[in-house]
Amino acid sequence: MTERAEVDIRTAVLEDEVVQLQVAGDVDLLTVPCLARALAAAARLSPRRVEVDLSAVDFLSVSGAAELALAAVRMPVQVRPASRASRATLTATGLDHLLG
């Protein structure tokens, strides 16, 4: 029996060229490609900023945090709000500057 990791990512374009990604579930090695695709799609919109809502994330792996860091090199990324779990990972990996 194999476990299936789940993540739900919803994208919205807000006023002032801001793209919001609402992420829910676990962002781990199995689901980080979903986050990568969502961030790449957001980048193609040439936003002024990407706001990543991690308030419903139960687990954020280091690979998920790394994906956010890579995105932040390509475009302005701000994480807000953040769950306790995602905030802990971002702080532990030195990416707390992404927290808004």
TrEMBL record:
Residues 16-100 form the STAS domain. Coiled coil: none annotated. It comes from the Bacteria. InterPro entries: MlaB-like_STAS, STAS_dom, STAS_dom_sf. This is Anti-anti-sigma regulatory factor. It comes from Amycolatopsis viridis.
